[in-house]
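Re: the 329-residue chain
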Amino acid sequence: MSQTRRGVLLLNVGSPDAPTPMAVYRYLRQFLMDERVLDMPWLQRWLLVNLVIAPFRAGASAERYRQVWTPQGSPLVAITNDLVQRLAARTGLQVAFGMAYGSPSIPSAVDSLRRCEHVTVVPLFPQYATATTASVLSGVQSAFAAGNPIPSLNVLPAFGSDPAFLDVLAASARQHISGVDHVLCSFHGLPERQVTALDGACLTEGCCERPCGTRWSCYRAACLDTAAGLASRLPGADVSVSFQSRLGRDKWLGPETGAELTRLARSGKKRVAVLCPSFVTDCLETLEEIGVEARATFKAAGGEELVVVPCLNVEEAWVDWLARWVAGG
């Protein structure tokens, strides 16, 4: 098949269009009304999102976005647009980027690939989760079904345990962790009920450390696999795992990142590096939540320096790996 008849669709969750309360309000409503993100009955979800979360969090969230906004817009969007250009140049394929919430939307990205005979779909999430992977794939399915022609589609799986990807991730981390006392892998958190709702995920003590036929669908097990693969490639590094971005009162995966950083500081760890291996692109959760909030938490507990390891973004080795990954699809 001609390279020009093949396309690649990169997917991510989303970002508001501007760092303003109104734009963030719209984004929060769209994001949190997805039943895969807030898995509760529709009426309860509607009341919580529209009467509590969106109205009361929009202003504070907009301020957080303003701290990381770039002249090109949202860091997530700006960096991924750069990745699109580099990947297209590297592969000769038509590459598009779409998000489940915000712009560019998944339908707009799908429309740009209508002339392709074959589209390789790449959710940019190293670990599978219903709130991320399933959400964007549902949007892709709906968008393609809404028009013609429909090309053949191949969805690439989560890649957080791929040895070549882990080599790239570890090589990137080694550039930043020299001289630190500890390396913390902070993954995006999920409510425990979302994890256990999937077949085979139980969260019993020690379960995620044992071989299991359903590891690909258990988010916690996948995160631990990524962290273990990284640790094995960072000889001499003291590595632990935590989970960030809690919302609401439900029990979430733990330990929580802020609590773990406090523990590390109080145990005498003065210089700690934080990696965020559930993200491949820097965004609010890495730049502000870790770079600002977590750094303040660590220093308040007695730590001296928190080194925030950048995401892979558009590093050459990452673009090379991604080009090989989509070529196989």
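The mean pLDDT is 92.
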